[in-house]
Prior knowledge:
Largest sheet of chain B: 6 strands, mixed
Distance between the termini of chain A: 39 Å
Distance between the termini of chain B: 31 Å
Structural class of chain B: alpha/beta
Low-confidence stretches of chain B: 13-29, 254-263
Largest interface: A-B, 25 and 17 residues
Oligomer: heterodimer
Strand content of chain A: 25-35%
Helix content of chain A: 25-40%
Number of strands of chain B: 13
Low-confidence stretches of chain A: none
Number of strands of chain A: 10
Shape of chain A: globular
Number of helices of chain B: 19
Shape of chain B: elongated
Bound molecules: adenosine-5'-triphosphate, magnesium ion
Radius of gyration of chain B: 26 Å
Number of helices of chain A: 9
Radius of gyration of chain A: 18 Å
Strand content of chain B: 5-15%
Helix content of chain B: 55-70%
Mean pLDDT of chain A: 93
Largest sheet of chain A: 6 strands, mixed
Amino acid sequence: MSEQNLKVDVTDLIKDYGNNHVLKGLNLQVKNNEVVCMIGPSGSGKSTFLRCLNKLEDPTAGQIVIDGHDISNKNTNMNHVREKIGMVFQHFNLFPNLTVLENITLAPIELKKMTKQKAEATAHDLLKNVGLDEKANAYPASLSGGQEQRVAIARALEMQPDIMLFDEPTSALDPEMVGDVLDVMKNLAKQGMTMIVVTHEMGFAKEVADRVVFMADGHIMEEGRPADLFDHPKNPRTQDFLRKVLNA
Amino acid sequence: MRKRLLCLGTVLLACLSFFTFFSTKTQAAEKTYTIGTDITYAPFDFQDSNGHYTGIDIDLIKAIAKEEGFKVKLKPVGFNAAVQAVEANQMDGVIAGMTITNARKQQFDFSDPYYYAGEVMAVKQGSSIKSLEDLRGKKVALKVGTLGASYANSIKKKYGFTTTEFDQSNDMYNDVTSGNSAAAFEDYPVMAYGIRNGMKMKIVTKPKAGGSYGFAVKKGENQELLTKFNTGLSHLKKNGQYDKIVAKYLGKSAQAKEKKAATSNDGLLSLVKQNKSSLLSGLGQTLYLTFISIILATILGVIVGLMQVMPVKWVNWLSSIIIYIFRGMPLLVLALFIYIGVPNLTGSKISAFVAGIITLTLNEGAYTAAFVSGGIKAVDPGQMEAARSLGLPYGKAMRRVILPQGVKIMVPSFINQFIITLKDTSILSVIGILELTQTGKIIIARNLQGFKVWTIIAIMYIVIITLLTWLSKFVERRIND
Ligand SMILES: Nc1ncnc2c1ncn2[C@@H]1O[C@H](COP(=O)(O)OP(=O)(O)OP(=O)(O)O)[C@@H](O)[C@H]1O
Ligand SMILES: [Mg+2]
């Protein structure tokens, strides 16, 4: 496995909020085309980790290299790196003042990555892929949660990212809408997108993930192929966590 | 970020040069002196029914200027504003029925006295009070800073009365005619003039403890002007012109003419008609002040509000200090500080109008900044994160995503602030700006019809505030669509 093939390379990542030590020295490597699912109890630092990867949070210490860019280096242009990292949030965060189409095309047009025509054509294609092209001119307020999240995914994809980060993309949704969003993500995985997905959807993790990472107390406790980790967890914390979520 | 700061600097610089442009304009010209006068001190300084400033002081300084060959630019700004402006080097001299006292000599150089005036006590017509002894346990109305006031204060223990002080002569008179106060103390000619012109009061004591009026310049400055005044005055006294001027206002023939203008039976409408041009120009000045201040305060407020939320610590800090200071300072204090204080510190004059604009811009701008930053902070932080995660730089994210949402939250506060700005212009009457409120004071000083004139002024404010509200609501609807 060559170094070039690494999309994400995290070394000894530490994040403190004052006296609250949230990430206590994390190491994780993600290869091209790999789908990594992160699971773990609430407050274990999963979101914080994901947000460090595109510097929505400033790491306290450690090194993060994304696609060959050392983002822990102050001189790295974060805006350029972020263009290549798509992020999908638990609460969608669509821009309510813009239509669905404008939500998707805002960044590429503002950043002069595409002409308006090109951006809109790409956006319509993406909307077709997520089954929402008829909503192109609607405002986010008129969409259901599941529709909003699919638009948010399309918005991230429009920038043609190399990596997609998902932070519990389905936990704010009504159960009947979860499926549509997961289907979009499965398709994406099939097309070879490199993805890090924080999720409580164990079924999805089992089916789609190449690797599952279990986090607790700011540490990665255990990682492995889904079949191994789910069926034969080694760490007692993992065993305990899986017992709780699978019996719930 | 750098670019934004640069941009901000440029705007501030532009504002500054705008102000200095105006301020230097007043310094030019040779042998023209700027003289401050009172506006509500008939028969020395007041506005006649045609809206012209007139009175013994005005005629005298004009005659002396003609005699001695210099020009005067009269600034009818009111006694306090005039005195302070001379102290601050904003004006060259003051002639405002100003009594020569030892305390004032610490700050000013006085001319030879040009009028002797004793203090008298006056009561409401038909009052039973006939002497100082009758004042025991009663309340007495005085005008701030006058010799009448210090005289009354010096004898109030002995005669056992209490005092209330007013800024305007007319308010003092009204307090007596309405029965609130038992008596007022005032210079004899002033009181006599008022009574002759229809004020329902009578003088019950002989002129006492009087002082002499003098023309004043700042101590140690404008000495040649002082000399010219003295020479001119002695010429006028010799050639009889001085007596003519005094007789014009206090002689028998003067009474009949002015009496007509001051009958207190005028209806509201005829009052409006009589004072149409002053009222309109006061209104115009108020609207002009409001309009410019709203624009500048909005620019300043948006900049300082954005500084408040920028992810740069020292900029947040700077913004907080600006908001803290200018929101915390009473508008009146800020206005006086800028008009009187700043020229004392920097040595360059600024016109009252510019001082007024700066005052309103800073004060209203600080309030605007507070609700602008509040509006931005009220936008879900997830919006900024989503925008940044797409690679949008801070400025673009702010402009395209955060501000459009924040502005909707801010619109009602903006409308509110515009209305407050309009009302706050009235406070600028203290530095002598001839806006609507000041216009009201001046009209009342002439016709002594306080209640009716204030009614007219109040209605005018309500009407323009209503119009401003409508306009704002219209704009609000446009924004929300
Ligand atoms: N901005 C912040 N300031 C201070 N503490 C924070 C901040 N953000 C997160 N934390 C703390 O960091 C810890 C980890 O939070 P994080 O959101 O990463 O957990 P999580 O694993 O994503 O949990 P969940 O499953 O509930 O989303 C928590 O104790 C939280 O209180
Ligand atoms: Mg989380």
